[in-house]
Design a protein that fits this description.
Layout lengths: L2 H21 L3 H12 L9 H12 L26 H17 L8 H12 L12 H16 L6 E4 L5 E4 L2 H15 L8 H12 L12 H18 L10
Antiparallel strand pairs: 1-2
């Protein structure tokens, strides 16, 4: 590979990862989107052209993070009000489906499993489901199902922003981890059903040298914890929960 092509590849790869971070995608969801876009899960296996196709797929035909009048990206990941793009809804559906896998209520975590659920729930043929107009309803329906079957509380956290002003922040992966912890406590795998106990466990798991909240973990640490707790949830399951629409 020439130096010029290597530089082109690194730039394209960096943009894919930056866009995934902006959309709040975990690694499993990003890889699923990449597989759908070019048939490959790993960026390392792609050419620069394939990476650009993945980026276009994430952008929904060229969409970019919203910018203010100054041309700068909004602070704290904020964006202008408006409906999500179709591709952003794709990403949310995939992320929720994989969350269901980590919560032990999804049996088939693949694209085919998600497509089958959408087909059953919305009576849409599998080849056409990525473009059907009820995606937003599907996202909300899946969130409601995970809240009902796995006890996920999707409410925003209230944090102190600049100048001590309170603001609401969505951290869905942290909410999934909290639900996983409650499931494991109910199954007797974990002993203390409290956020303090979860925080201590999370910090030990991440190698943080102090007891803190699970919200102190970075993105990579959060994803690793969610995966490991998910494996424990699946091992501890004592009953089969039907998938939505079954």
């Amino acid at each position: 590979m020439s130096a010029a092509r290597s530089a082109e590849w690194r730039q394209a790869c960096g943009r894919v990862h930056a866009r995934a971070k902006y959309l709040g995608l975990d690694e499993d969801t990003r890889r699923a989107i990449q597989r759908r876009a070019v048939g490959k899960e790993s960026c390392a296996d792609m050419t620069a052209a394939e990476l650009r196709r993945v980026l276009s797929h994430m952008n929904g035909g060229g969409g970019r993070p919203a910018r203010g009048r100054s041309g700068q990206a909004p602070k704290n990941g904020a964006r202008k009000p408006g409906r999500p793009t179709a591709r952003e809804l794709d990403a949310k559906l995939l992320a929720l489906w994989i969350s269901g896998w980590h919560l032990g209520v999804v049996r088939d975590r693949t694209d085919a499993g998600l497509a089958a659920w959408l087909c059953r729930r919305f009576k849409v043929e599998v080849p056409s489901w990525p473009d059907f107009p009820a995606k937003a309803r599907a996202v909300e329906g899946m969130k409601a199902w995970l809240a009902r079957e796995a006890g996920v509380d999707w409410s925003a956290y209230v944090e102190l922003g600049p100048k001590g002003k309170a603001r609401e922040v969505d951290r869905p992966q942290a909410r999934v981890i909290e639900a996983q912890w409650r499931i494991l406590c109910a199954a007797g795998v974990m002993r203390i059903d409290s956020l303090a106990a979860l925080g201590a466990y999370a910090c030990r798991h991440a190698g943080i040298g102090r007891a803190d909240s699970h919200l102190a973990l970075d993105q990579a640490q959060t994803i690793k914890l969610m995966r490991d707790l998910g494996a424990q949830v699946r091992r501890a399951q004592i009953k089969v929960v039907p998938e939505p629409g079954a």
